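Reviewers of the previous submission asked for a worked example of the structure-prediction workflow described in the proposal, so we include one complete record here. The input consisted solely of the amino acid sequence. No template or homolog information was supplied to the procedure at any stage.
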Amino acid sequence: MAESYSKKEKTKQKAQKKQEKIRKIMERRNADPASKSLDDMLAYVDEDGNLTDQPPVATKRKEINPDDILLGATPIAPEDTVRKGTVLFYDDTKGYGFITDAKTGEKLFVHGSALSSPVKDRDQVTFEREKSEKGFRAVSVNKVS
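From that input alone, the workflow returned the following structure tokens.
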């Protein structure tokens, strides 16, 4: 049985595509071999962290002391444990009140059991902050004379 015209055209187009593909492969193989050297394919990082095709200059190199490198999270500086503040409100009958931190302006809850001596409104005090279930609270509260 004879092939139809459209079938002949499809096989002809496939053969042309195959020939074109082989021609492109041969062109790539015969391309300038010097342009594909290892040095042309390498990329360098300069002192600023940018990619460049030039190797780094040894005279610009800085020596880094390995002890100066910090790994992991940034260390947290210890904060002052004893703080100063003012009694904003204190109710003797209920046994609690609030202290305003002089450094941050933060209001902290204070319970009567954390007091070393009786306090009243607007007294200057020293205290320590402690994390509680509902936020920070003042403990070890001492009245400043």
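The chain has two domains: 1-53, 82-143. We consider this example representative of the routine output the project will generate in years two and three.
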